[in-house]
Design a protein that fits this description.
5-stranded parallel sheet, single chain, two-stranded parallel ribbon, 3 domains, alpha/beta, Helicase, Ruva Protein, domain 3, Rossmann fold, 17 helices
Length: 378
Amino acid sequence: MEKYIKVLNTTASTLDALISAGGEVTRLANGITEGNDEEKSAIALLKQINLIIDSDEYFKETKQVAASLRNCIIDFYGYRKLLDICSKEKKSRETEDKRTLQELLEELNSLVGLDTVKGKVNDLIAYQKVQKLRRENNLHSSKNTLHLAFTGNPGTGKTTVARIVGRIYKEIGLLSKGNFVEVSRTDLIAGYQGQTALKVKSVIEKAKGGVLFIDEAYSITENENSDSYGKECLTELTKALEDYRDDLVVIVAGYTEPMSKFFESNPGLKSRFNTFIEFGDYDSDELDAILLSMCQNNDYSMDEEAKKLVHSYFEKQISMKDENFANGRLVRNIYDDLLMNHARRLVNVANPSRDDLSTIKVVDVLLDDGKERCFSNE
């Protein structure tokens, strides 16, 4: 979503300069992206765009930018509509989630790797469950918050674990709904002073009773040009962490080092979080297991030569990895490439057998797509 907002605002700024509108076009574009009189802003901006396009007094370049801005508005609303549809579908799935506590624990413990993470989460669940029982029996119980901080590289399962924790907390009675709301900087910070607090409050209202998951939370404060907005966001968020601690779990996540700076950016923020869990990178065997699990869940298998070659590829990637190593996302990309290569090969096979349709072979790992090989066997 942030990409569409950036392109829309940049194009609006360009048109503003071309027609010497004194910031009016930019203001209307911000009204659309920030939700301030959005409908009025959209109507006014589209009218202005149409006048420019239909007028003879503007140069061709200006008309092209105006047309481009109109397309940006269409793209923005189209993408947001898709997000709304996906959000409703996701909410529907969560509402229909009938898994028992035992099933949720089994799902957690069946995740590939993450042994340290799973151990800490299981300990945390056991602790919270016992504290709840102590309260029910009029015994003293700790007032520790439920909020969590997940740190580590991308693709290490932070979002997946956060979802499971939310459902487990619902099952043991710590949360009333168990809903899961995932947000980023764009969902929390507005473009005008005073509007950020309203956006944060709106997000908190949606998440109450469940989990609010803030991915790349450090991005809230890392932009020096909008530092005041980041501080406004953290002030409201820190207040919510305390006010709704009995029926809201906030999980912040991101790279380890930037997250340390994030907690230093606001006095008292770190004290609102009792549990910090580091998600380590996967090793090559764990990446193998994730890939094979994805294949199995979708009725695919891999022959032994293909497995060996993919394993070598994973080992090579791990040896060259940096802080941006993609972990599970790397596996997802490999999986998608393998299926596409398999499809390219099978589409030209007459009457392929069930085995043909379900087996990824070494040739699919090395298949040349006309530009470059999916993997290298060097």
